[in-house]
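Input set for joint prediction.
Command: fold jointly, output tokens.
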Amino acid sequence: MVSLNNTPDASARPRTALLSGSLPASRFLLSVLLLTLIAVTLDQFFSPILYSSSPLWATATWVLLVWRRGETSFPPGNDQLHFSFSTQRVTAFFAAHLLIVFAARWFTEALQPLAGSVSLGGTLLAGMKLCVLAPTLALLSACPVERILSLYTAEAIAGLVVLITFFPRRTLESLWPWYGQVLARFVYFLADLMVPGIGYIRSLTPTLTGPDLDVTIILDCSGINGFELFDLLFGLVVILDWNPLCKRRTFLSYFAGLFAMFLGNALRITSFVVLGNHGFAESITRVHIAAGWIFFSVVFLVYLCLTYGWTLNKKSASAEPQTVA
Amino acid sequence: MKKLLLLACLAGALLPSGAKAEDHDREDHPKHHMRVNEMTGIGISAAALVGVAGYFLLRRRPLHLV
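tokens >
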């Protein structure tokens, strides 16, 4: 049922593996993740109430990172580990997905009012949608999970970070009553240094009043576009440079980058308040949406310039300069 | 790979501008409208293009200059 082989003869390995149906660790994990990605996509297709982009992004990221890593850089002795699927576990995996789809369709009518709503029920429903990843445990338990996770710890953590933090629209919507005040207060503090006579009206959508232009900070000003852009671009950098990256520094750099985008967004709104109250009110009203995107990409690039060299593992990068250049 | 990515971003930036709907105002002059989501599409594509291009430029630099 489960085979975990340490094959001493490397030259005989491919043939033996093919005949026994066992796979090297990377291919086994890739197969598991690809099966998961397909199954989750089908779940969401046949039961739209299950739709959530988080499991798709997380699984896709894990697939790409395992693929980028390849079969190199394993600790000594682990490069010859082989794992195999058993028919029972694959059957259990698909049966569990079928069960989830039927259950979700059965309860669709009851759950529909909660879907997408910013409420406790809506948040619980969003959390329950992650259950589509649970059947994967049936496949992974075919091998010692801790063994394969120890080989792919960094990739697993990256997948988890994507699952929890990517595209945090719902989180920002839930936190908006508090987060909106923090953002507006911070912008007020910065703008007050440059615009005399500025005022602050506290409400769910706080307004900064100025002599020429009043700026109301609505949910769309939360910086969600900046966070999403940062997630996409940072994800691209990580996938392309995965092997030479220092994983610990990349992890820190990601969260510091999210904070940098928050600061960038505050600076963006401050610039609207300051410029709008210094004779550019009409121009600001006209271009502020489109300019915001470009501003966010500039913030990302400045941040990347400052941290890229640090996040690269220079030891391995200098050994393999072609992977970086 | 790089060229494909740049091409995808460029296509993403340019395609939504072809989706502008033509309408007529009260004087029957042709008038262009653009929906907010189309503007957002152009914005995110342009920003992604700038970001990806900047990253590749940064990546091409010798490591000691990064």
